[in-house]
Amino acid sequence: MKAVFVLFDSLNRHVLAPYGGRRLPTPNFDRLPERATTFERHYVGSLPCMPARRDLQTGRLSFLHRSWGPLEPFDNSFPEMLCRAGAYSHLVTDHFHYFEDGGATYHTRYDSYDFIRGQEGDPWKAMVQPPWERLRQMYHERQFSETARDKFRRNIANREFIREESEFPSVRCFATGMEFLERNRAADNWFLQIETFDPHEPFTAPQRFRDAFTTGWNGPVRDWPRYGRVDELPEECEELRANYYAVVALCDVLIGELLDYFDQHDLWRDTALVVTTDHGFLLGEHDFWAKNRMNMYEEIVHIPLFVYDPRRRASAGVRRSALTQTIDLAPTFLDLFGVPAPAEMQGRSLLPLLDADGVLRDGALFGYFGGAINVTDGRYTYHRFPPDPRAQELYQYTLMPTHIWEPFTPEELAGASLAQPMPFTKGAPILKIPVIKRSPMFDNYGPGALLESETRLYDLADDPGQDSPISSPEAEEAMIRLMQDLMRANDAPPEAYARIGIEAK
To answer: Where are the transmembrane segments (predicted)?
Structure first.
């Protein structure tokens, strides 16, 4: 077996034509359903970026126990399991979070990897004394900074060295993936992951893509919305959205080049293809930009997924309504190569669904660490918040005490205790570290970051845009029972139930 996995970041399902998108042409994404199975109800698990990738590699949810952090010593990792079974795995990525304190154990699970530099705040190009006066005039004040190690400053420096289309990280990322295929397509038993940070913010695309979405904006570069409520003027909002569409158009061309390669070399004969994203991104819907700060709306959590298995060509062009999640990808990749999934994986292989639609699970649990616990059964979505997110009892369970950019502080670790092994830690005891307000994650993607904290129930059948929460005690009770069942299956710690005011079942 050979397999190519394409992972985008922040690719909105609802802008893609195969899912009804009409905001921009996506002719190459349109080609995917001709070959692949299109999944209609595919959802996230743990968010944001690296928590999603931990779910992806391990096949189990992590957000009830842990925020952003590395793979743990007890975690199963599907590329490592493929290696032990004799299959070669290679990662091509421009996702720089793999190379920070909070992500540094993911890329080394692959047999080899290519890291493409220059996305967002990647500390890539050194400019000790940048020409600040010129740069200050180029960039909007909300995406400009002279502060050392600030992500805006780093991005400004990086963009001074990205001019030609061939220099853009996502373009280089796909080109490097093609190099792997050129060297190895005749070999057997390999897995290639091509992963790009695009269309994640900042929404930076080559000029020919931006020209297709002109808005009349005459101000400085405005392609990086801040996380939070929309407070920009309409013309500024249109410019931000247009730049997102430009990057999606770039992604469409890149996936098209890969599909062309499949066609040219008839890789469809013996090579699987999976295309998805980690999560979506709000572009003003619900009066918000981005993610992390607000309720987990459908635009963030309901994501695209296309799966092609060369042994199941009859599944080309079909659509599946089974409820699936990111945690199902690891067992799917293992199944492609005939490797049994370990007991700790909660996800299930999607390959049987290519043969016939069915029920993979009754519900999908998802969330941010320290935020609401959320669940859907495909009809309803239920978002249950703690009464006071800033005052809840909350612990991180880890043997790898690092945050996104830095280790846990001595102040945080001073309150740590050694907890008994959890069912998924393979007999290893684990640190139980209380979350404090001085924690670096608290106001960034933790409980202090929330701008919405109202428990809500939505009926997606009557209100797919989630415009109006409903009051239905019967439906809410059913969703609470489903939530309890899934939390128990995820070995949720006792305080996870207490913090949202439900009983452990």
So the answer is: none
